[in-house]
């Protein structure tokens, strides 16, 4: 089982931005009965590659925003990757956008007080990166490679951090919404506000709109920790 390394929170960071809206922390609950907003930090994600080998990575945040009245949803995982940079910020969020249209099911599990959401997708999630090429520092290569690997699979399990205060009723409600599927929340999913206004790009091709893809020295679907930790557009 492969596991990504830990991140030193004391270094200079770039806070992940959400265009036109702010998703509250898991300790804050939305005031509207027809909305679900959660932010669960430092979760563990597991998945299987094409050889049925189990992989695992830590330090991924899960954000979900569902507007029941409008029948729209916004879901993403992300991890903060330290990069080689001559000027701040030296840490960038690398995202996996999970469009509701590709979600087959979300299953809520609670085993021995360990809560999980199991995702089954029809297509791979969108890998969203800065437009400029990035090179991960050695301590973040494993995390970056894991995020890239997750962008190449259609099922994974998010095991929530034990400190998460998100009510189980909210998690069960999220699971019950799929199917039927809401549509993508285009306002929250707008990439133009990411990376301090420079905008992000879809770096894989899970949607027809994708115009760029990820380059990696190791073959998909899993890039081992010995990879070069480089993501670029073509």
From TrEMBL:
Record field: compositional bias (Polar residues): 206-215
Source organism superkingdom: Eukaryota
Residue segments, region Disordered: 1-29, 206-234
Protein name: Uncharacterized protein
Organism: Trichoderma harzianum (Hypocrea lixii)
């Amino acid at each position: 089982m492969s596991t990504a390394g830990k991140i030193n929170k004391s270094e200079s960071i770039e806070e992940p931005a959400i265009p036109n809206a702010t998703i509250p922390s898991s300790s804050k609950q939305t005031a509207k009965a027809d909305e679900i907003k959660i932010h669960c930090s430092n979760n563990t994600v597991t998945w299987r590659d094409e050889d049925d080998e189990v992989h695992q990575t830590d330090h991924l945040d899960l954000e979900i925003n569902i507007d029941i009245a409008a029948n729209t949803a916004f879901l993403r995982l992300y991890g903060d990757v330290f990069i080689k940079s001559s000027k701040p910020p030296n840490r960038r969020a690398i995202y996996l956008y999970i469009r509701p249209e590709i979600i087959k099911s979300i299953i809520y599990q609670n085993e021995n007080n360990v809560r999980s959401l199991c995702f089954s997708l029809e297509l791979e999630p969108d890998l969203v990166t800065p437009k400029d090429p990035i090179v991960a520092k050695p301590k973040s290569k494993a995390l970056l490679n894991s995020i890239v690997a997750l962008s190449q699979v259609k099922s994974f399990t998010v095991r929530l951090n034990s400190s998460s205060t998100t009510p189980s009723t909210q998690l069960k409600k999220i699971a019950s919404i799929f199917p039927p599927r809401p549509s993508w929340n285009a306002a929250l999913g707008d990439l133009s506000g990411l990376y301090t206004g420079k905008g992000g790009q879809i770096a894989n091709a899970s949607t027809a709109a994708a115009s760029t893809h990820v380059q990696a020295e190791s073959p998909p679907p899993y890039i081992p920790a010995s990879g070069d930790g480089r993501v670029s557009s073509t």
